[in-house]
Give the backbone structure.
Amino acid sequence: MSNSYKDLIAWQKARTLVRDVYAATRHFPDDERYGLTSQLRRAGVSVIANIAEGQGRNTLGEFQQFLGHAKGSLTELETELIIAEDLSYLRPQEAKELPAKCDEVSRLIHGLMRSLSRPRSSASRN
């Protein structure tokens, strides 16, 4: 496994997702600055931060736990995107692309979690 969270594809894709969420929320109504805009940004940042923090922990179990937190934040983000779409705050292209990027990050996190739970051969433990 890499020594840097920056090498994880899940982290890289989550980074792109956060940038896209920030770009999409720039045109939200001013009265949403402390509401939905803030919630969407916070949830997006939480996804990438939990991936990074988990990778920096001491055990695989801790890493898996933080990946679980990242998936929870991603689900929150997806729900908030649905609300933003319902309120017509997202442009049509954003309403299509952002959920697709969430799905991609979710699959990557799930795959990473699955790879961490596989039994290691005795040769790889040494």
Q: What stands out?
A: The domain at 5-118 is CATH 1.20.1440.60 (de novo design (two linked rop proteins)). The mean pLDDT is 93. Residues 60-86 form the longest helix (27 residues).
